[in-house]
Structures are given as structure tokens and as C-alpha cells.
Amino acid sequence: MSSHRADKHRARKADLSAPKAPGLSSQPGRRKSVRAPQRNTTASAASLIGGGAFLVAVLGAATTGHAISSDSSEATPSASRHDGAYVARLSTTAVQGRNEFQISRSAIRPSLNLSMSKNDNRLTAAREQAAARKQRLATAADDAETYADELSRAERKAERQAARQAERQAARQAEREAAREAAENDTSTTTTTTTPTAPVISGGWVLPTSSYSISTWYGEAGPYWSSGYHTGVDFAAAYGTPVVATTNATVVQTGWDGAYGNQIRIQIENGDQIWYNHLSSIEVTVGQTVSTGTPIGRVGDTGNSYGAHLHLEYRLASNLGSGVDPVPYFSSHGIGF
After folding, report:
1. CA 31 to centroid of chain Cα atoms
2. pTM across the whole model
3. What is the CATH number of the domain that holds 253?
4. What is the DSSP letter of 26?
5. Surface-to-core class of residue 278, CB atoms within 10 Å of its CB (0-12 exposed, 13-18 middle, 19+ buried)
6. Residue 178 is inside which H or E element, if any?
7. Mean pLDDT of 96-105
8. CA-CA-CA-CA dihedral for 237, 238, 242, 244, to nearest 10
9. Domain annotation covers residue 100
């Protein structure tokens, strides 16, 4: 037997002597097919529960996706065009059991439409306020311009009045100076009367002052007096010359009286009054009784006066509101100016 055959024989013999596995063929030189072991098809309870949970999860995801895609008014995700803001809107049913913060950021990042609408309203209100302020400023400017025009007119009017007043004063002063010069140069003039140093007493009346000259008679017209004419007689005399009561009377008023300056009013027995004006001093009081020739004050230059003089007025009891010419009443008592 060759060596090859001997080896083959030994191998066969070894196979025959080895324990046989189930399912192996007993025929020499052939491999018997072996059946695969059968699987245990009986499912355990844990496997069934896990599978059911998996199936429920799959169905829930499918239901949620259907709810999101079917209701576009509530569940359709929408992307805002304002700065990339994203807002997902879901129905109440769709968001139950889910993390609402992950589905929608509207709670922390609201839509910009409402914000921009508020900004537009604020901008409109600001523009309206600015327009109102502009209108108020324009109205105030118009009022200021109107006031400035009125003030300018008032100032011009006051300047014209002051100029006219100055002209009247200058003219009146010039007339008085001219009258004094005429009295000094011509002693025969009818407008100048020189009296003794003491008042002349005649018929119970005396002259109101002494050492005077008549500078203005009653009724002379001119722009210097508010009535348009002179309402008394002016006795030009040295400043401080004594002034006396022309007759028995009662003092009814003393003190400052506007254009008349320092004034004394005495009332005689028949109710007529004699007014002494522009005095430098007053030496009697209201209610005091004075007799003829009693000193009551002194010549001055107060009030609407241009040079020291006594402005004497005579007023009737029937009309104390306006003066009359004193000359006839003094003449009736023997006193001539």
C-alpha cells in the first residue's frame, strides 16, 4: 500500500472511531447536512411593551405633523420678514404635551408689526405736537409784532405831546418875559400895575399880594391851558412874596392840586370862592377863619407854572366848577388891578 493510500486509510479509520455528532452522515467520505436549530418564536412581555411604546411614539409624531401641516391659520410655521424674526403658530391641540418654548419664540420675541404700529403712532403724535408748537410760536411772534407797533405808536404820540408841551411852555415863558420887559420900559402900559408894599384896603377888600405886575389876564387864549384860555389873573411877583386873604372868609381847602400846585381855597360870606395857586408855602389850615389882609401863604412856582407868580381865580357859588373873571368882583369892592 502506498503511503498516500495509507494516510487516507488512517484518516478514515480515525473518523469512524470518533463519536458521531447528531445529524451527521455515517457514510464515509460524505458530509451529512446539519439542520439549523429552530428559533424560539415566543415573544417575551418586555419585548411586546417596548414595541408598543415605539409604535405609539411614531403615531404621535405623525399626528402632530399632520396637525401642523393641515391647519395653516394656526399651525403653519411662518417666517416674519422683519429682521429674520420667526414665529411658529400652533393650535392648542398640537402643542399639548410639547415644549412650547421650543415650538414658538413669540413669547420672548413678539411680532414687530405691533411695535412698528406704536412707533408710527408716536411719530405722528410728535409731528402734530411740533406743528402745534410752531403755530403757537407764529401766533406769539405776530402778537409781539403787533404790540411793538402799538408801543411804537404810543411812544411817538408821547414824544409829539411832549414836544408840543415844551413849545407851549417856551412860548408862555417868552410872553411873560416880554410882558416884564414891556412893564419895565413903559410904565403907562395898561397891563402893568405897580402896587405899594402893603395891600390896599377898600370897602373891606384888599389886593391878594403886593409888588406885582399882571402878566396874564383872564380869558387870554393859548395852547398853554387845558381849557384853551386863561381862567384867572396872574400876579407876577418875587418868589416868597406874602399872599393875604382878600376879605373875611373861611379856609375850605389846602394842599396840592395837580396843575395848580400848592393851593388855598377860601369861601366868602355869599358862598363864592377865591383860589390862590402855585404857592411856595401854605400858612393856614382847613376850617380856619381868616380876616381881611391875614397872611395865608407865599408866592411860588409850583404845579404848571413857569416863573414865580400868583394865579388868582374867582368862582361863583352857583358854579364852582369853572372860574370867572375876577376883575369885576374886585372892582365892585373898589379894588383895581
Report:
1. 122
2. 0.44
3. 2.70.70.10
4. -
5. buried
6. helix 112-185
7. 50
8. 10
9. no
Residues 194, 214 contacting (CB under 8 angstroms): no
Q: Which positions ≥6 away from 11 have C-beta within 8 Å?
A: none
Range with the poorest average pLDDT among 37-51, 164-178, 202-216: 37-51
User: CA angle, corner 197, sides to 337 and 233, nearest 5?
Assistant: 25
Residue 106 burial (10 A CB sphere; 0-12, 13-18, 19+): middle
Question: Could you give the CA distance from residue 159 to residue 166 in angstroms, rounded to a whole number?
Answer: 10
4, containing H or E segment: helix 3-17
Q: What is the total count of domains within the chain? A: 1
With respect to residue 256, please indicate whether it lies within any of the assigned structural domains. yes
Q: Is the pLDDT of residue 59 over 80?
A: no
Residue 230: inside a domain: yes
Cβ-contact 284, 290 below 8 angstroms: yes
Judge whether 272 lies within some domain.
Answer: yes
Pairing label, strands 273-282, 262-267 = antiparallel
Domain of 299 in residue numbering reads as 201-331
Coil, helix or strand at residue 41: coil
Mention every residue, 6+ apart, whose C-beta is less than 8 A from residue 89.
73, 74, 75, 76, 77, 78, 104, 106
For the chain, the maximum distance between any two Cα atoms, rounded to a whole number of angstroms, is: 215
Q: In this model, does residue 172 exceed pLDDT 90?
A: no
More reliable by pLDDT, 269 or 53: 269
Q: How far apart are CA 146 and CA 118, in angstroms?
A: 42
Question: Does residue 78 have a pLDDT over 70?
Answer: no
Give the separation between CA 172 and CA 220, rounded to whole angstroms: 12
Pairing assessment for the beta strands 249-256 and 213-216 based on DSSP bridges: unpaired
Structure confidence at residue 248 (pLDDT):
95
